[in-house]
Amino acid sequence: MSTADITLTNNYWGMLRNLNDDVKLRLASLLTASVAEHRTKTASEKDSLTRAMVNKYAGAWKDDRTSDEIISEIYSSRSSKSVMDFTL
What we know:
Helix content: 55-70%
Order of helices and strands: HHHH
Distance between the termini: 63 Å
Number of strands: 0
């Protein structure tokens, strides 16, 4: 376990240690189930889930403009306020 992992674990423990015992047991049960499920999945199942997510969200942005046209529109829509004179 890396130092970053230990720090993260300690941070979560600091937030969770004051919970009542029933909530702690429920969290422990959910975390244990999550680890067990993760360990039983094969690499191909994990790849399949990744591919499904990519397929779901890839190409979600639909537009007929080219990237250059979009960038040009972004730059042209920028505006700045005029300089205010604060001299007395």
